[in-house]
Amino acid sequence: MSPTLVRHQLPASGSIDGDEPPVATGSRDRVRDWAEIQERMLVPLYEAAYDRLGVGAGSRLLGLGCGSGLALLLAAARGAQVSGVDADECRLELARERLTPGGGAEATRLVSGGLEAAAAGGAAFNVMTAFHPVGCGGSVEGLPAVLSAAAGLVERGSAVVLGGWGPVERCATAGVLRGARRPADGPIDFAAGSAGWRLSGRDDLEELAERAGLRPDGSGRVACPFGYADMGSAVRGLLSTGLFDAALEGVEQRQVEKELVEALHPYERADGTVWMPNVFRYLIARTP
After folding, report:
1. pLDDT the model gives residue 191
2. Helix 70-77 vs helix 89-99: angle between axes, to the nearest 10 degrees?
3. 227-238 burial by CB neighbour count: b if 16+ within 10 A, else e?
4. Any bridge partners for residue 221, and if so which?
5. Cα–Cα distance between 243 and 288 in angstroms, integer?
6. Does the reported pTM lie above 0.90?
7. What is the DSSP letter of 38?
8. 34-55: per-residue pLDDT in tens?
């Protein structure tokens, strides 16, 4: 089974040191910022889950919400056969660049269609990952149905990995997301549901698994600090997550960037780097 990247509609998962922060030019810039700045922050989460499951040769892995493909690349480096599903065409393009640097169409199929296209021409998967289902933007209401449908592509009793934020008191980024303010109209609480983001509750991953018909079978916590070379990288990285999209609909991006800079100042170190300790959580569930 060669790497497969499938477009599928999942439920909606410069220097800035003065008075004139730059405005991003579009979604492709955001996608590049995600791939080059932000996504690497979650490598400890990916690696911990893969270590726990022994992902390697013999693993046939399906990544839901695979994004720009870093988690798939890490699994492939361990010898796994990987396929990915995502709703964002720009992120899938980057995933294909990573997984097939030669650009050969024969090595990677990019299909616009349902989940079934991910399994076309190969054996059933024996690992499925959904590293960003809870607290990473968008509604979680449609996720149980998506996970249940995807579980039909996975061998019986196989592992499904769900990911989310850890306890709020151990996630410094929570304070940043809550700290940005809209001076004219009062506070923008980026942790509010209207902004499409919230920290995971203690049992959210277990409840999601059970609603999807999956059986919880162990969990873990992983330190995933968000570290940036400078303030500009921190702002670009956080904006690339999509967590601020709702706020950007009602406020000029320049204003949101300024408020982000203010919220990040407590985490800026003497050398100009920005460092926020966070803990993420993963759940291992099993298909029926």
Report:
1. 38
2. 20
3. bbebbbbbbbbb
4. 281
5. 33
6. no
7. I
8. 999 999 999 999 999 999 999 9
